[in-house]
Design goal:
The radius of gyration is 23 Å and the shape is elongated. The protein contains 14 helices and 20 strands. The chain is an alpha/beta fold. Helix 13 links the parallel strand 19 and strand 20. It starts with 6 loop residues before the first strand and ends with a helix. Helix 3 runs parallel beside helix 4 and helix 11 packs parallel to helix 12. It folds into 3 domains: 55 residues, no CATH class; 137 residues, Response regulator (Rossmann fold, 3-Layer(aba) Sandwich); 211 residues, 3-Layer(aba) Sandwich (Rossmann fold), CATH 3.40.50.180.
Length: 435
Amino acid sequence: MTLLSGCHIFWRYRIFSVNLDEGVYIGPLWHLYPFRTEDFSKTFALEPLKSIRINRLKTLKNMPKIRVLIVDDAVLVRKMLSDMMNQDPDIEVVGVAANGSIGLQKIPQVNPDVVSLDIEMPVMNGLEALDKIRETWPKLPVIMFSTFTQKGATATLDALSKGATDYVAKPSKAKSLNEGIELIKNELIPKIKAICSERSGLNIPNNLPKPKPLVEHPEDPKKIKGIKRFHRVDVVAIGVSTGGPNALMEVLPAFPKNFPVPIVLVQHMPPNFTKLLANRLDSKSNLIIKECENGDVLEPGHVYIAPGDYHMAVEQDKGDVVARINQAPHENSCRPAVDVLFRSVAKTFGRNALAVVLTGMGQDGMRGCQDIQARGGQVMVQDEASSVVWGMPGFIVKSKLADAILPLNRVADEIILKCQTGRLASLIAGNKGNT
């Protein structure tokens, strides 16, 4: 559908993305009222505006709202969450419950699309309720509502290991009630929509423009062609978000003790959580896994996880590659951010880098993958079917940056194969050069 100049009226319609002759604008769902295209172009600074094609158009009556069940023992929290969610046009709170036992009774009554589940409750706590939910409704998304404390972080990781879809931590540094509510809203609402993306219609557009590379001197593609598949991998950089702890618990324990390269990893998590996650993964893995400290020298067979609320980057230092952590501004609303790590990996390792992007919401990592690919490195992503949320890997695929798209149960084997194959190919090439 093409819109030319003049007045165009859209009543009771909502739009997610607008394809333009010179790119794509991805924005929230808007309610559109009578407008002129020249006014529209001024609003979004899109001059010249030649034509617009509506990419995704749905009537309100044909777009079902996301049905949410809130389970929390605090009356004020139930009311706060209900009011917050009901203000969103895509979400409907269909029930509330004061403990896990009541929540279990309500699930078949209200048929929710997602459950918000507090951890600490009387009668039946959130972990007990989660066990029961998974017995009867194994596919029902559950978002845990936890605290930033050490105890809360431990319980949250327990919940994720029991099959919780994701979590939201109650803000601990909010200066006021309104600020706390806004912090929760900004984290919880996007997660609900991402997890229920098919129902809400918030799918990733199929025609994303390829992002512009941020590297100053990308490698010549002609030189890369024909050797990219076989060159040596000297580092594996992993980015992951929603669904990450369980994905990592499947991938990392599959690596052998003598894995030949270091692994640097960003998992979107707050402070306290990342250290506990590293300790849990370390107890299950042949590799040495730790929360990164500033100045750590990267060693083969070691995994370095960015600490919560800190970016992590790598750099050359007197013949070694070391990790640096900092609290520079958030990127993609994240700290740590995958893009920060991937940019530094591209700069430090060039074509000898392998980037791996697993399940997660948003598009953090997409520009970093552009840098890695531009310098000749390889990019691997998790497929949609095995992802909890196909946001981060999905954006990379739609931007044509992925060299391989794999189910989660094949990711570790493929990483190992690439590291072994590349080193063998380099050894053979070196031997030939010496003959």
